[in-house]
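hi! just following up on the protien thing from before. the input was this:
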Amino acid sequence: MGVPRIDFYVLPDQRDNGRVLLACRLADKAYNLGHTVYLLAASEAQAAALDDLLWTFRQDSFIPHERYPLAGAECSPVLVGAASPAAVEAQVLINLTDAFPEGFERFERVVELVDQHPDVLAKSRERFRQYRERGFIPESHKL
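and the predicted 3d structure came back as:
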C-alpha cells in the first residue's frame, strides 16, 4: 500500500452546512470515480444528518451509503459514521472532525474540510502540522 494523499479543502466562508455539503459533493465525486469512501462525522448526530443529506443534497444524485458500524454483512461504497476509521475498509477518508484521524495511513486519500470559523481553522492548522511531522506533504485547495 502506498502513501496516502492528503488534501485540505478550504471554503471561503463559514456557513453552517458548508463543510457537510462539501463532504457530500466530494463523496459523490469519489463514488462516481469508483472509490469507496468513509465519511467520518464528529458525532452520531452529525452522522445521522450526513446520512439524510446524502439522499437530498443534489436532486439527480444517488450515493449508495450505510451507517458505520454496519448492521448487516453488505458493505456500501460509502460509509458514514462517528467511529474510529482505524478498522474501516475504504479508499477515501473524509474527515469532518476536529481530531487527527486515527489509522489514516490505511487510506489512499485523506480529505480534510476547512471553513473560515476560527476554531475550525486553528484545529485544521494543527492537523496539517501533525501530518507534516509524520512525513506527509498535505496540499491545500482554496475553493
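The radius of gyration is 14 Å.
The mean pLDDT is 92.
cheers
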